[in-house]
Amino acid sequence: MLLHYLKIAWRNLLKYKTQTIISVLGLTIGVVFFAYGYHWYKYETTYDNFYPNADRVYRMYSMYKSSGKPYEMGTMPYIAVEKLQQAFPEIEKVAVQYPNSGSNFKYNNKNLGYPLLEFVDERFFNMFPPNVIAGKVDANTFKNSDEIVLTESFVREHIGTPEEALGKVLVSGYGKSYVVKAVICNPPANSIFKRVGYLSDSDALFLYTKVDDVVKWHDFNDTRAFFQLKKNTDIKKFNEKLRTFAIDNNYNDDLLFGMVPLKSVRQTISNPFDKVTFDIKYIRTFILSALLLIFAAFFNYLNILINTMFTRVREMNLRRVNGASTLNIFGQIVIEMLLLIVVVLLFSFCALELTIPVFEKTFSTIIITGKIYRILLVTICAVSTMLYLTAFVFLSRFIRKTSLRQSTPTKNKFSSNRISLVLQLAISLFFILSAFVLYRQVHFMHNADWGFNKNHLLQIEMKLNERIPFMENVKKLPMVKNVINTNFFTIIPNMENMGGTRAMDVEWEGKPMDYNPVFQTFDVEMNFVTDIGLTLQMGRDFAEQDLVGRWKSDKILINETAQRIMEMENPIGKKITVPANWSNEQGRGKEEFEIIGLVKDFHTIALQSEIPPLLIKGMSNANGGYFNYVRVVSGTENDAIKAINELVLKHQPDDENEELVKTVDSILADLSKTEQDVMNLFFTVAALCVLIAVFGIYSVSQRETQRRRKEIAIRKTAGAKTREIMVMFIREYLMITLAACSVRRGVPVGRIIYAPLAARVCLSHFHFVVDVCGGEFGCGGYRAAYNF
To answer: Is the pLDDT of residue 776 over 50?
Structure first.
């Protein structure tokens, strides 16, 4: 009997091949999209979960109470680690990372460049035990300040085999020697600990012991701490006590604490050494898109099922006449649905196998084959369950009502089809509108006025040893018009990536109590304003006479945002105090500057963030700069990049394969890469949804035409022309389309809900956006909305 059902089911799938192809493709695309999205989400939110007790490990970080901003890279005062461990019995273990001071290394006079090393304490490997290949890692590791632990890949590239590396000596640029104690496996891809080596920062700890507790709480804020909590700890209560610990104990009135699970650190706390290409918001958007695509395919299949059932009324009645029971007919339809699900399953597995490499490359992730296959199987089972439950409700009524009838009642018989079509079209319109909103935003970003002259401008990241001779040779290139030396002026993705350019505790006359805004600061060479193309609103640019000593200046420029924050009507000649980038036994140093100029606001951060208050310090190019700029003759950008890259190889680059020279235009374009990818995703999903909806309309129109053959014949007999009958049908389907549009733009639903909803989904993280309530959306023209 089962074999008989399967034969009939296969014949029916072939008989209604158009409907079968539409159903299989729609469901396959939907479940594959969702499987990719869910796997991606789980992968990105389970970083480092392979460590022991990873579910109880949290990263602690500090925030400024006055501004609500987190400390750079989620750091905290080192003294807080000790105090928290003493005050909270819930804390079981602690591991500490220190800042990377950055130094070149040598081995047997071989230059190893600037390897990415992690400075840790002796407790680090106790919480995060590595896989040791050679040597030994235990509780005593790093108690001696001259020990270093390296990864296998670094050792094989620069020293030899792991066994040969043990006992070898590496010398830092500061003249300190380190002995290789152990060689460990390379960190896995889904880990936030991706360094080539680990060592102890004894210099930082030595200075720490020399200062008093007040200085420790306010100025030594560069520790990254991980806490392992005891089992059954009430996380909510612990977090509440932790948050105001420093204030409650009078340690620091502007210090709050927060915590984030280990698995979520990468997506929550910014790390310039581990760039997140697609953040968690984008991944959730991907999953939402996949879910809506599944629903569109689901509704489309229901349309096709309803259409097919009405078409087969005569077949079912003939089966009844020949003795088939209602259960037999129902069983036959269930087998047909099961066979279609099996076909979808096979196509889905084939689609995954073919597209996994493409997905990994496009979205910079790793697909674990076994895991994604399990996710796909569970997704198909869930979709099948929904299909069976929905089909059971419809089929039980349909089979009962069509018993011994040649046709079905006309009353409300097409309401299900039309509702499904409206929902499909509404989903399609949402994606179309969202894609269009993103297209307008990306277009706006590409054409935005960044406040400086970016034409024919190249950026050079100075990751090489011979900086000054290199820049002298760059100046001699025939296509170079002028060179602009800076320390750390570059366009960054967001305020969390300010790094060493972030400045807090800036002091000026009349500063309100408990007010501590975040400033951005960097050093530039003389004539920076003119060369980079800024607009000077007041005062003057730097000059050679401003230099104090060999290369530093005691003068400073500010932007309009800084003027507004400091409430200075005429800032020229005013003095401000800025924290220095050095510390001593008295704490972090402070430097006083005189304001000599006010520049018009320009972007140093991507359009997702507001323009920060800016402090621009003067310098000479004594150290060669770190981010330098070259303006070249129009049309020679590619030739200049090629020529500069050739010079890079001659001046000891840290990594010969790293791209150090880029056009500023390409850097700005990269800042909108995520939005471009989301836009492409929405356009793709919108096209698929529209295609599925069109197939659904085709299915309904085909069935409508068959059902209304008598009506069509009567109309033709009465003198109606073919064109008039076509117009009648088109009018009906146009009404369905308009019904879907009313969800977007109905009176008054569309303008109030749908367009703002699409904008909120797509542009919620932007500070500078286009107005999506205009023009096509009925609220006026498009414009750039600068939200100061």
So the answer is: no
pTM: 0.74
Are the C-beta atoms of residues 782 and 774 closer than 8 Å to each other?
yes
Q: Which residues contact 327 (CB under 8 A, 6 or more apart)?
A: none
Tens digits of per-residue pLDDT, 352-381?
A: 999 999 888 878 888 998 999 999 999 999
Distance, CA of 13 to chain centre:
43
Q: What is the DSSP letter of 750?
A: I
Buried b (16+ CB within 10 A) or exposed e, 570-590: ebeebebebbeeebeeebbee
Strands of the 480-484 sheet, one edge to the other: 480-484, 627-632, 457-461, 661-663
d(CA 109, CA 111): 6
Cβ atoms within 10 Å of 644's Cβ, excluding its own: 21
Would you say 46 and 57 are in contact if contact means Cβ atoms under 8 Å apart? no
**How far from each other are the two terminal CA atoms of the chain, in whole angstroms?**
73
Convert 327-354 to b/e letters by CB count within 10 Å (16 or more is b): eebbebbbbbbebbbebbbebbbebbee
Distances (CA, A) of 611 to 74, 227, 314, 596: 21, 35, 71, 21
- Helix (H, G, I), strand (E, B), or coil: what is residue 507? strand
Residue 551 neighbours by CB under 8 Å, 6+ apart? 619, 620, 621, 622, 623
pLDDT digits over 35-86, tens only? 999 999 998 888 888 999 999 999 999 888 877 777 767 888 888 998 999 9
C-alpha span between 566 and 558 (Å, rounded): 10
Hey, what are 582's tokens?
A: 């050095």
Reference 326, options 407, 405, 396; nearest CA is 396
Strand partners, 605: 492
CA 130 to centroid of chain Cα atoms: 28
* CA gap 148, 179 in Å, rounded: 6
Cα gap 728→40, rounded to integer Å:
48
Phi-psi region of 504 (alpha: psi -120 to 50; beta: other; left: phi over 0): beta
Q: Confirm if 625 and 467 have CB atoms less than 8 A apart.
A: yes
Report how far residue 661's alpha carbon sits from residue 474's, in angstroms, rounded to the nearest whole number: 12
Nearest to 6 by CA among 332, 397, 329: 332
Q: Identify residue 36 by its one-letter amino acid code.
A: Y
| Res. 285 pLDDT band, cuts 50 70 90 | confident
Identify how many contiguous H helices and E strands the chain contains and give both numbers: 26, 27
Distance, C-alpha 419 to centroid of its chain: 36
Contacts of 388 (CB under 8 A, 6+ apart): 334, 337
CA distance linking residue 122 with residue 145, whole number of Å: 10
Least Cα distance to 331 among 342, 321, 319, 318 occurs for 319
Question: Residue holding tokens 């502007």?
Answer: 254
Query: How far apart (Å, rounded) are the C-alpha atoms in residues 459 and 339?
Result: 59
Chain centroid to Cα 192, Å, comes to 15
